[in-house]
Structure formats: structure tokens, C-alpha cells
Write a structure and sequence with these properties.
This protein is mainly α. About 45% of the residues lie in helices and about 5% in strands. The radius of gyration is 15 Å and the shape is globular.
Amino acid sequence: MFESRGKNEDKELELEFRRIMDSTRMRGMAETFRFRIASKQANSAGLQLADLVARPIGTHLLKPDQSNRAWDLIEPRMPKSPRGDIRGYGLKVYP
């Protein structure tokens, strides 16, 4: 579920979403996810929670040396590989 940002932005987002789904190698992902947009007025608790989690993750990726207390709380809860790696397991990064 994506929060609407405007007609042009929504269209660009859908194109990028479809590009990722067309190129993913993750088994079952393209068949599972659907593109859906909710208006800002919906005030969805799920979208609010996603915002609270997405920002610290994005900040960590863009500025890994910056102090990030929210990331410090999120990271231990992410799925990890048997070797302890989160990239590709609990953390998927798309261009």
C-alpha cells in the first residue's frame, strides 16, 4: 500500500513498482504484491507505522556513520542470514 502523493507522482511510483516486480528474482514476490494507493485522508495506521520504520532505515542507508537510535532499535528485529547478514534477508535495497 502506497500513500498518494499526486497524479504524476503516483504514476511514476507505479511504473517503478512494476519495473521492480518485473525484474525481481525473489520467488513469489511478483505474484504476491499488488500496487495499491491510499489517499492521505485515509490516515492508515499501517502507513503511519511504515513511515516510522522507513525513515530510520533510509537514514541508515544514506548516512551509515550518523547516529540513529531508531535504527538501533529496528536492526536487531530484522531477519538475518545464518552468518548474521541483514542485506538480502531482512533488508532489501532497490535502486
